Amino acid sequence: MPPQDKTTNLTESPWPIGEMLVKAGQISLNHVEAALAHQSKQIEPDLIGEILVREGIISQPELMAFLVAKFFEERKEYAAQPLPPTAIRFAGVEKTLDGRKVLDRVDLEIPQGKITAIIGVSGGGKSVSLKHMIGLMAPDRGQVFVGDQELGSLTKKQLLRVRERFSMLFQGSALFDSMNVFDNVAFPLREKTRHDPETIAKMVRKTLAQVGLSGMDAKFPDELSGGMMKRVALARALVTQPEIILLDEPTAGLDPIIENAIHHLICDTFMRARYTMVIISHAIPQIFNWCHHVLVLHEGKILESGPSVVVMESQHPVIKQFINGNLTGPIKVI
Q1: Measured between alpha carbons, how far apart are the two ends of the chain, in Å?
Q2: pLDDT at 7
Q3: How many other β-carbons are positioned within 10 Å of the β-carbon of residue 281?
Q4: In sequence order, what are the residues at sequence separation of 6 or more whose Cβ sits closer than 8 angstroms to the Cβ of residue 305?
Q5: Separation between Cα atoms, residue 215 and residue 208, nearest integer Å
Q6: What pLDDT, on a 0 to 100 scale, did the predictor assign at position 15?
Q7: Contact 293, 306 (CB under 8 A)
């Protein structure tokens, strides 16, 4: 392991990943400076990890293992910390669809700058909740706040401005079959911004590098594996540089190895840019390892909300049955 440079002040470092590696003694500041010196163009702070790997200073598996270990530490520390500011809040939200109350006086808070998982049995109101967060659905009663803005009180133009703070990864990836990887990722930039083609190309290639798809620009969706399609969908969600990312079942339909890879990728993405992320997931109990905060939604109500390490130990009979996958219990499946 390279020695740490003990003499350098890192408090003003613009390279958060590099700073963490130096403080942990994984590399020295001289390594970071040497890596940057080899770059001929301005480098984005969240790409420092790729530069260090490219320069052979740290391997990709070592970098990923380091970031995951740091995330696991943060996840445990979160339980003892004061709650951060709220990014999204529901106050008494009700929604009835086809005569069934899908959301029943729901009060919830999504912490800012953290990963929140919403879990529960199918049909419990999870996807409907995401649609309310982004304003694609309006509650029959109650209020939805994004920051201090109540969505129901906004004009159409104001609501569109709020939606620009979001990106969404859809359950089925929702890639355009007729577009290659580059054009799929570029789509929201072309639709929502006035960036010139050169800027768009730079942003797309940077984002593809972030999700490990450099050089895949010309591939079409039918040439990609399920895991690669999820990576493209995540790149499309990231390319607009949102504040909040909503992920609807990002590992649905994937085998356990690829599921684990996608969880690692989400963790890596979070550690680099500190987005507020909301994940709907049935990957139980694995998802508890990949989020700070958990909301358990059952029959339209919030059964429990709190740090993942706390909720995982819940003694609520519904939550215990859901986590353990038991056939017997209050959730009737047969």
Answers
A1: 55
A2: 34
A3: 24
A4: 108, 109, 293, 294, 295, 296, 311
A5: 8
A6: 65
A7: yes
Positions of the chain with pLDDT lower than 50, given as ranges: 1-13
Domain map (residue ranges) of the chain: 16-78, 85-165+242-334, 175-241
Query: Mind giving me the DSSP string for 126-183?
Result: HHHHHHHHTTSS--SEEEEEETTEEGGGS-HHHHHHHHTTEEEE-TT----TTS-HHH
| Prediction pTM value | 0.87
The CATH number of 85-165+242-334, from 3.40.50.300, 2.60.40.420, 3.10.129.10, 3.40.50.2000, is 3.40.50.300
CA distance 85 to 82: 9
Residues in the chain: 334
Q: Tell me, what's the pLDDT at 162?
A: 95
**What local confidence, expressed as pLDDT, does residue 267 receive?**
92
Instruction: Report pLDDT for 123.
Output: 81
pLDDT at position 1 is 38
Q: Tell me, what's the pLDDT at 38? A: 65
Q: What pLDDT was estimated at residue 53?
A: 80
Q: Which pLDDT value is given to residue 6?
A: 35
Residue 38, H or E segment = none
Tokens of 81: 């910390």
For the CA atoms of 292, 91, 123, 176, the dihedral, rounded to the nearest 10 degrees, stands at -70
CA dist list (Å): 253 to 40, 125, 229, 280: 42, 20, 12, 14
pLDDT score for 5: 39
**99 and 316 Cβ atoms separated by less than 8 Å:** no
Q: How far is residue 19's CA from residue 278's CA, in Å, rounded to a whole number? A: 27
Give the residue among 171, 279, 192 at the shortest CA–CA distance from 239.
Answer: 192
Q: Provide the pLDDT for residue 59.
A: 87
**What does DSSP assign to residue 94?**
E
Q: What pLDDT, on the 0 to 100 scale, is given for residue 226?
A: 87
Show the CA angle centred on residue 164, arms to residues 158 and 170, nearest 5°: 125
Residues 322-325: contacts with CB under 8 Å, at least 24 apart: 322/119, 322/120, 322/121, 322/284, 322/296, 322/298, 323/284, 323/285, 325/284
